[in-house]
Amino acid sequence: MEEKLKLSPDSFEALPQAQEPDNEKIAAPSLTFVQDAWRRLKMNKGALISFWIIILMMIVAFGSSFFINHSTLVKSAPQYANLPAKIPGVPINGFNGKLKVAGQWVDEYKQNNVPTGKYFILGTDNLGHSLAQRILYGTKISLIVALVATFFDLTIGVAYGIISGWRGGRVDTVMQRIIEIISSIPSLVIVVLMLIVLRPGMTSIIAAIAISSWTTMARMIRAETLQLKSQEYVLAARSLGESPFKIAWKHLVPNLSSVIIIQTMYTIPTAIFFEAFLSFIGIGISSPETSLGVLLNDGQKNFQFLPYQMWYPAIVLCILMIAFNLLGDGLRDAFDPKSRR
Amino acid sequence: MRKYLLKRVFYMILTLFLVASITFFLMKLMPGTPYSNQEKMTPQQIQIMNEQYGLNKPIWMQYLIYLGGMLHGDLGTSFQFSNQPVSYLISSRIGPSAQLGAQAMVFGLFFGIIVGSIAAINRNTWIDTTSTVLSIIGKSVPNFVLAVLLQYYIALKLGWFPIADWGSFSYTVLPTIALGVGPLAETARFIRTGMVDVMNSDYIELAKAKGLSRYGVVYHHALRNSLIPLVTLIGPYTVALMTGSLVIENIFSIPGIGEQFVKSILTNDYPTIMGVTMLFSAGLVVVILLTDIIYGIIDPRIRLSGNGD
Amino acid sequence: MKLSKFAKLGAVVALSAVFLAACGSKSGSGQASKQVLNWNESAELPSMDLSKATDVVSFNALNNTNEGLYRLGKDSKIEPGIATKTSVSKDGKTYTFTLRKNAKWSNGDKVTAKDFVYGWQRTVDPKTASQYAYLYSGIANADDIMNGKKSVSDLGIKAEGNYKLVVTLDKKLPYFKLLMGFPSFFPQSEKAVKEYGSKYGTASKYMVYNGPFQLTKWTGSNLSWTLKKNNNYWDKKNVKLSAINYTVTKSNSTAYNLYQSGKLDEAILGSEQAKQLSNSKELVVRKAASTFYLQYNQTKKEFQNKNIRKAISLVINRQQFVKKVLGDGSTVAKGYVSADLAKNNGKDFADQAYVKDAVANNTAEAKKLWQQGLKELGVSSLNFEILSDDTDKGKDTTEFLQSQIEENLSGAKVSVANVPFKTRLSRSESGNFDVVVTGWGADFADPISFLDLFTSDNSQNDGKWKNSEYDKLIEASKTTDTGNTDKRWADLVQAQKILLNDQGISPIYQQATSTLVKSKVKDVIYNSAGVNYNFKDAYIAN
């Protein structure tokens, strides 16, 4: 400590008044939880692209309702059955109306005397429906199934989880046993039982999803609620005599939001898959309506001859699934406090 | 522990009882008779046959008779396979399904762990990205699409494996892959996340600082610790394999139980519907219980208590 | 019978077409050294109990592993079986059969008249709960026994010694000999039935065989089995195949893949595959004696209107439907009774009773009739549901119909319901439908087997179409005109014409299945009715 600090008297003078608040300022703008998550999500390229893909698919699929209605779906044209894709001006085999038949590329449009000027950009199915239209409609149905599953997750799943965790004790035990029983019945059995009572189609699929899809969400929410219950701010709210409903809405739900969003992102692909599976075993959506699962199932039967009928819906389904999975991953990283390093 | 086990077993039986009851009563709502020739038979004949099969008794009585039979291990006689006891039908067809399920599970877990660990070790490199993309694709392709592709390209075009049927091990390869890719992808992602978390933790830093080899760190610390939560995935995998096997069995002509189930529903084969439903539920309940127990044993932090979830 | 996707047994006795797998030298000289046939089935073998079998797979296996009094050859021609000589009484009600002495069961026991008596009594006995016992109707006392009014020993079959069999009938059955070639009338070894008890016919080892082949490798529920040449068979020197390996495939594309790789010599095709392979030399179309048609629920006001029914029928482009949508070899129905089923004086019934308008396609006329019908009903639009099976074919049918009707008939709003077979039957029977796509297959080679269905009092007449003249004609064909072949024929022709002119139903197509068969497979006998396949004479050519 040999060195001496050389302090001059002017070091002790007060700063000009105007500079004072600046020193107290925090450099970065303050971010809400959602803003912070959004910022993180934007850094994740894959998740961001997926997000926009999903938005785009939703717009296109739901927007298609204006021109793909019941009568377009019903209208069949067997004279145009099983035509491959044809996009005018694209001379690539596979997109020019040619199909590989026994090793040779054959112009199916010419073979079937399709009038010039008539073309289908993704080909047609066995009743001459435009495959592109069917895929759009199928995507819409798959998205609806996804939304329905999300809806039940958010309503039944979240409410059930919060009630179970919040009330605890006997109520919790009973509610957990119910979940245990529901999740012990294989979903296939539930669907089949639904079919006994209802007709195949959207109603039975939705009913099956309503019964079984929310249990995972309820479990996760309950576990989180149990933790949150003992937090000081919840305790404070309780001591102040807030109604349980208000506590749930004001304190629990915001704090549960990350769990909710992440879990939803995993519910969606599962639901889409589930619908595809049901259609495969022939108990899904019924004609003239269609879904990606129905299209895939029809396509796989003729894969040897008309591979495009399976490839196109398969590609769309894969893009949808990949987008939801990547977005789910991105959201998890964005919301997960552990990865905020 | 014992008290916990007893409690769990009690709930298990309760669950199965409820499943049996719900299925039984719903099944009775199915239209038509279980006879494959009902439209040819006169009403008197149908009545005589109903009497013989006990179908003319009140439903509650049939229900009691069924429950009584089940306690003795008697699941009734199939209608589609005449004279064939359902217990025989199930036991003769469960083999391939179980083998396929087990192989797919092992395949998925084994390769999933390998892919996941490689991705985690080479985190944020092209290897990591590739394996992530591949596992997402693996998760995104429906297994029946995969099965059709495998059958066409690998079996028919390349001739590496048999196209369909059930026999030696080579027959099981393609179905196992088709069925196991889903669990593989899931496992890989799970392991990767787990290992990345563990490798960021302080004790790994310590191990590294102590001069443990990269391999040693990965094997002794990271992998071991991320394997534990994997046990919880076995339950959901079992469910996925049960439903998945139905589709795979259909495409690869495997004499399994899944396909039989759908057919029994279409033909109103009441005893088979009940038998297979009970088998599926019992299988699932037992697997969930086992994984909970295993989890408790390997991870001491989890206390086995009656109200644990 | 109503037809389901589970390939129900087609017609039991009918004139039938034979498809030799390929035309080629029929002499035995070109035989390959390895006489093994690899055959495709689309469903499991559920039963080998002659009394309890109900499905086409079981009957095919039973027909080739067992033998009755006769064996049905090409064109359902009666060929010698266990019976060597048959004499019929003048009134046609008593048959006396002399049995061959060299017929044996696979366990070495001799096949005797007692085995026939036992087998028949067992099937008719209500305790056995045989679902095909109804075929015995017409044999003395069979109906009473089935309904529990008489004991089985009263059945009109008696053994006189070991090798003589006397059968008495309640009434003359013109198709009786054909029935004798059907498995439900085959003999059964009492010893085997007693020995195996409840296991009888549940696995290949719990059964004895007296036919050209014997079953092996069948565990009761597996997906493959083998018919091996039976060395105890009396005519074994004429059986050329040493084995037939069956493989069950649930997916048509799997079957086709197996066929391409040479693992199967025959593959059952789906409709799209058949369309794509329509130029293949190996494509073989198997026709069935069954017709699919629209049945209208005539307890509902809108379908009592003839113009509405006619409009719906006229709007269907059947030609396009069978060619472009089904594409599996099915043909446009000529009428309700299937084509090539029965002939009188060389003329096919379907041609004689043809009503052009009933199966024609005339959209302009349809539109006119539709508007007229709506006016008569006093409505401007009509919503109805078409019920059908949940099979691929069923779905394609309803989708096509929906499109054709909604596109061309303004004010028509069609919804479709594709339900499992059992559900469809049950809804039809309870009258819970508007329009149903349903099929009927002949039980024997006579138009009456079809036409009986639409008499007012028939319990199977789900649409409740009624016509007193039709009833009278059917009644006459059974009573006053039964002895006069031409008169009876004219009655039946007139009856179908009434049915079709009134559009009581709208016939759509006659069903067929497309298969691929390797050209080296020769002399497989296929009958469109009864048991489909007979492999006794089949062989593999070089």
From TrEMBL, chain A:
Transmembrane segments annotated in the record for this chain: 47-68, 141-166, 178-198, 266-285, 310-331
GO biological process: peptide transport; protein transport; transmembrane transport
Residue ranges of every copy of the ABC transmembrane type-1 domain listed in the record: 139-328
Compartments it resides in: Cell membrane
Primary subcellular site in the record, as a coarse category: membrane
Region described as Disordered: 1-22
Membrane topology value: Multi-pass membrane protein
Keywords attached to this entry: Cell membrane, Membrane, Peptide transport, Protein transport, Transmembrane, Transmembrane helix, Transport
Pfam families registered for this protein in UniProt: BPD_transp_1, OppC_N
Gene Ontology cellular component list: plasma membrane
Gene3D superfamilies, sorted: MetI-like
Family under the similarity heading: Belongs to the binding-protein-dependent transport system permease family. OppBC subfamily.
Name by which UniProt lists this protein: Peptide nickel transport system permease protein
Source organism of the structure: Liquorilactobacillus satsumensis DSM 16230 = JCM 12392
From TrEMBL, chain C:
Subcellular location: Cell membrane
Signal peptide: 1-21
GO biological process, one term: peptide transport
SUPFAM superfamilies: Periplasmic binding protein-like II
Keyword Cell division listed: no
Chain ranges of the Solute-binding protein family domain: 77-461
Gene3D superfamilies assigned to the protein according to its UniProt record, in alphabetical order: Dipeptide-binding Protein, Domain 1 (3.90.76.10), Dipeptide-binding Protein, Domain 3 (3.10.105.10), Periplasmic binding protein-like II (3.40.190.10)
InterPro entries: Peptide/Ni-bd (IPR030678), SBP_5 (IPR039424), SBP_5_CS (IPR023765), SBP_5_dom (IPR000914)
Keywords: Peptide transport, Protein transport, Signal, Transport
Membrane topology reported for the UniProt record: Lipid-anchor
Molecular function in Gene Ontology: peptide transmembrane transporter activity
Pfam families, sorted: SBP_bac_5 (PF00496)
One annotated Gene Ontology cellular component of this protein: outer membrane-bounded periplasmic space
PANTHER family: PERIPLASMIC BINDING COMPONENT OF ABC TRANSPORTER, PERIPLASMIC OLIGOPEPTIDE-BINDING PROTEIN-RELATED
Family in the record: Belongs to the bacterial solute-binding protein 5 family.
Protein name as catalogued: Oligopeptide-binding protein
Species whose genome carries this gene: Liquorilactobacillus satsumensis DSM 16230 = JCM 12392
